[in-house]
# Entry
Amino acid sequence: MKLWQKDKTSLKEVERFTIGKDQEMDMYMARFDVLGSLAHIRMLESIGLLTSHERGVLSTELKHIYDKIIAGEFVLEEGVEDIHSQVELELTKKRGEVGKKIHSGRSRNDQVLLDVKLYLRHEIESVVAEVKTLFDLLILQSEKFKEHLLPGYTHLQLAMPSSFGLWFGAYAESLVDDVITLEAAYRIVNKNPLGSAAGYGSSFPLNRKMTTTLLGFEDLNYNVVYAQMGRGKSERIVASALANIAATLAKLSMDACLFLNQNFGFISFPDELTTGSSIMPHKKNPDVFELIRARCNQMLALPNDIALITANLPSGYHRDLQLLKELLFPALHNLRYCIQMAHLMLTNVSVKENILGDEKYKYLFSVEEVNKLVLSGVPFRDAYKKVGLDIEQGTYSPSVTVQHTHEGSIGNLCLEDISRSMDQAIAKFNFKNVHESLKKLLD
# Structure
């Protein structure tokens, strides 16, 4: 069953090729297709294209389908092209002719656009929740281990004293900026394309602002041509925001792999969170962090993959856009999974104490020695030369304490300020408005 089919069917090979993974990908969007239809039929009733009775009948059946989807009992039947066809087929089976009216004033183009936006909006909220959970853990660990000093590196060479408080806190603050970029993507997604039809509007007097309110969108995609042009653009923007989070996780994972290495030995994990070797009994491998790193590095390519599919397309709909779902939808799942696994690992991390007591780390304190001389009145360049000569002559004997007090330093982590920044970033999403609108739609 195909929405566009008339009296002829496509060659089977063409059908298999063009449908591709659409049936699998459409199940991600199933409940959002129903939500879109619930809003659409309310609008159709308001402009006289459905009676109150017809709308009530369709609404009851759509809510029944929604419940089946939530319960995991909804399937796309063999031979049914996509989620939109399956929903319309079920309505027609149950309610006859009235089921055929649901597509009035709507194209599959704007139906897919709507479903994708509703799905991405929902998924972004889920990602934000996972990020916040990891963020809270990083803040907690930063406070817990703020007294534990750690070597800081530049060029992977010993540089200056750092601390686990700084290390955990740095990744916490990185997530704040990642959420800020995700909020920008959310605002792009949170605009209603419904009513743009095939990309050129409709001769029906559609009330697009009504469906915008019903579905909890912040605003409309006003221009119907641009609404269609937004497909691909929205996905690319979301992918870029996800890639920012992925980059943070990948860098954190690389640090963890280094720090677990015996030549560093800064951190450790319970045996059950690491893996072994088939021939080396001593091995404790950081496979979880290695796979997080790999999956997140894959995600860094995602915006470019989407851009290359859409780069030379003119305005209007093109079937190329179908492939975007195959790239983006699984990536969202993988990112959430990586965040969850990073949380599991960092919840159970153990930190080595008195790392900088080792003789090989004494040169970390050279800047501290220079600064002490400067504070006593020695010009900086002279102080720098003196400490350098002491090192060369073997007379360098530093104090191994640090007194950093400025904002964001070892002794002043500003964790409350970083937490406030995250709360402010999340508050801008206004998820509550969406929840309230969709609850009303389903009631």
